[in-house]
Structures are given as structure tokens and as C-alpha cells.
Design goal:
The chain contains ten helices and six strands, in the order βαβαβαβαβαβααααα. With 211 residues, the protein is of the alpha/beta class.
Length: 211
């Protein structure tokens, strides 16, 4: 079954280019295009895509606001921020809003296709430049009064290594739904909204090595 992708970008030529080289992959299906964040939210509700490629700087509603709205309403839809601006503070806001990844627009086509598939499987996707920046900028969450259990720590370590829910379930010999429950508990305990920030926490605290 193909991965259903929604593309949100205010530049028509970018949307056309993405449709062209993503559409050549039989595992990916472009189900819609949005020229701004408000349309992206509306189409996400209608189409229920697996992954949304979201530009951050758009008219009407910016990408960060759209990510937050979509993640609140559609937790099964993953959003990857795709932008040309690395230094913009909106990058950090995108992670806090719940994006599973952040990629630069100069990402090679084959890398973007791979990243979309990985995001659909629940894997955090960060460009090396973004990972380095986020590690500097994102604060480690305050110590929780409810510490992670041993199993949750194992799940967090594998999540931070880029493993999908399915891979984590295979590694730990537990059901995939159990992995999702553990991830939900981890996010609650750490006080972070996304897998990306949980992964960054794991790196900051030395649970895994930086990419």
C-alpha cells in the first residue's frame, strides 16, 4: 500500500517539482497540494494523508501553526518540515509543534523519498545541520517527577537511534501498539510534544550519541 503524501508550499514551482520526483516512486502517492497553511489543515482533515511535507514560511497560516493544528487533530498524520531557512526560529517552533522531522529544501530527491518513508514509519528525520542546531537550541526538559521506567528508557533509546515503531517492537519483542503506548507515556513524562524532541532529550542526556 502506497504512502499518501500532502505537499504544502506557497511556491507552485516547488509543489510541481515535488510532485514530479516523488510521483516517480511507486511507494508514494501525492494526494493533494496546499499553497498555504490554512489549506493544508483543511486538506489534511479531508484526505487524512500519512505524511505532510510542510513549508514553514507561508501566507494566511504559517507552517508552524498548521503543524500544531494538524498534530492536535490528526495524531496519526506525520509532518516533516521542509524549508530553505535553517536559522529561522520557526525551525525550533516546528519541532515544538510536533513535526517528526526537519529537512532542508536542498535535500537530494532520493534522500527526501527515503525520509518520507521513514517518517511514515514513525522515525525521526533531521538533516545533519538541523540536528546540530536543535541540539544547541532545544532545552532539555525539566526533570520529571515521574521518571521513565526501564522499558520506556529502552524504547526512547531505540527511538532516538531512528528506529520505527515496528522495528522497536521487533527489537524488544513487544507488540507495535505497546510501543505506541510507551512512546505516548514518554512524551507525557518528558513534557515534550513530539518524538523529535524526545530523541533530542535522549541525545542531550547521553542515552545515545549525537548523529
Amino acid at each position: 500500500m502506497s504512502i499518501r503524501v500532502l505537499v504544502a508550499d506557497d511556491h507552485g514551482v516547488v509543489r510541481q517539482g515535488l510532485r514530479m520526483f516523488l510521483g516517480s516512486d511507486p511507494e508514494l502517492e501525492i494526494v493533494g497540494e496546499a499553497p498555504d497553511g490554512a489549506v493544508a489543515v483543511r486538506l489534511a482533515r479531508q484526505l487524512r494523508p500519512d505524511v505532510i511535507l510542510m513549508d514553514l514560511l507561508m501566507p494566511v497560516m504559517d507552517g508552524v501553526s498548521a503543524i500544531a493544528a494538524i498534530r492536535r487533530e490528526l495524531p496519526d498524520t506525520e509532518v516533516v518540515a521542509l524549508t530553505s531557512v535553517l536559522e529561522d526560529a520557526a525551525v525550533l517552533d516546528a519541532m515544538r509543534a510536533g513535526a517528526i522531522g526537519y529537512l532542508l529544501k536542498d535535500t537530494e530527491a532520493h534522500e527526501l523519498r527515503r525520509a518520507i518513508k521513514a517518517a511514515a514509519a514513525g522515525q525521526v528525520q533531521l538533516s545533519p545541520q538541523a540536528a546540530a542546531r536543535l541540539l544547541r537550541e532545544v532545552r532539555t526538559p525539566e526533570k520529571s517527577e515521574d521518571p521513565l521506567t526501564g522499558r520506556e528508557t529502552e524504547v526512547l533509546r531505540l527511538l532516538a537511534l531512528g528506529k520505527s515503531n515496528k522495528e522497536i517492537s521487533q527489537d524488544l519483542h513487544i507488540a507495535e501498539q505497546t510501543v505506541k503506548t510507551h512512546v505516548s507515556h514518554i512524551l507525557d513524562k518528558l513534557g515534550v510534544p513530539s518524538r523529535t524532541q524526545a530523541a533530542l532529550f535522549a541525545i542531550r542526556t547521553g542515552l545515545v550519541s549525537p548523529p
